[in-house]
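We close this part of the discussion by returning to an individual protein. In the encoding step, the backbone of a single protein was reduced to a row of integers, each denoting a local shape. The sequence in question and its structure tokens are set out directly beneath this paragraph.
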Amino acid sequence: MLKFSGLVWRLGTRSTIRKYSSAGATLYKTDKSEVKSVPDKPAKPSAVDLDKDTSGNRGLVAAAFASLNTPESAETKRPSPKSAKLSRLQQLDNQILKATDINSLLLVAENPVVSRRHALKMVSVLSEWSSSNKVKLAEFEKDPRFLKLCRILARTPTAHAMSSLTMAEDLSTVLGITGDDEAARLIMNLSMPQMVKVMKALHQKGRRSTPLLRALSHNITKQPEIIDLKKSADLLFCMSSLNFPDPLLLDRICNDVIESLPSNQDRPAVVNSVLISLGLLKYRHEQCLTALCDWMRSHMDICRASDVASAVVTLATLDFTPPESDALFKAAQQLKEEEMAKSSAWLDLVFSLLTLNKAEPAHLISTLKPEFIDKLLSAGEIPIPSRRKLMIIDAYVLATCGAQAPRLPEDVCVGVPLLHTKEKALYVHSIMDTFKSLVSADSFLKRECNSNMGFLYDAEFAVDAKCHPVPLEKAAKSQDVFRIAVLGLDYHDMTRKTVVPLGVNQLYTRLLQLKGYKVLQVPYTEFNPKDKLVTRVQYIEKRLRELVGTRT
């Protein structure tokens, strides 16, 4: 027992003896609460000490200390499943980077753990090789391993559907779904029809992927072939629905439309589609608009009532009257409400004719009658934009036909919100800050004015013949002053390409003029909020003198 005591003392433990079934397997249970510290590396007992132990215990203790000094074997220190998977994925990355030909690259696709990220990387590499003429498309487009990569990226639902796809369709599906910078690099290898398919796929999925759209726009613009009318209509429709008015692509499409129109003899629908999209995009390409209207005038016998109405709505949006367009407007004026598919379409046509100053009193009055309002209500609550149009028509009828003309029911005007967008409010605020230097007192300037005609105008003030401010109260009683209404026009109030105020803003101006105001339009193209205050004040003073007719 003395031998055991000496050994226990050297190990630095206080233990209680536990006996197991084996006679020579006596072990010690340590009381952990009494252990103050544990040495980093236990001291190896000397040979003399081991000789003092019994033969059974000597082997046990020696083996225990030997295991402390022996590093863990690879068999006992196995990697976790997660780290093993990461290692395999890293190996795939390295194989892709080291690949020098199609076979060595697509060999990676045979690995069952290949991920979507690896698939996209491999397709991108193939795209680069193809664009640099290192390989040809035909060398891998039907390879099962490449089709597997397309399946991973496109997630095509059935193998049958996949077998019917060509390589080009695979790529268009890939591009339509991925929508990131790496996928956008694949665009350059697609043909014109394939790129149009990609644009349509983005529209159908509602994916406004800016990298893809920019890549598509750039590569379509560079194509030498003419974009035919059908593809032009599809592209314009997708661009309007995705709110992607790329100016270079729009200009290219409009020029190709002009060139393609003479060959179109029997398809008014595609012409109508182009016109509608140009209106939605607010793109005033005057040569293209003129060519489209000339085509409609020459093919009026095959144009439907809805085609004529849509053309007038677009022209009113863009405030553009093409030369020699009298026949088109005459056809529009002769349309009847019954020829429109919906009552709201008739309201849009009448409002557009009013915007272009082509409406007849009978058109305007027809939209104010109770029976027409009932037709609008039959489809549900009248939308806010339609109610504003009705309010504007009502105000115009009152100003031109007098109080004896039919009036809009008052309940239609109730609850119509008149608010600026955040961007417009910031622009108007900068204009009002400039006016502080010209008209300081509140009695001289009224802000955020409700016209009671379905729209807001931004300020009202009065000046005399020398452009000196006059109090508003005095201006209401005097005939020798000029009442000025201010309309700030930001980016969204102007057309694109040829930058002019939208037709609706010109209509606001006419209505205010009918009320006795001189209207000071302040477009963002002339007034920069970032300019110095003195520059902005000089601009307002110059415009005011031009408006009043005063010379310096």
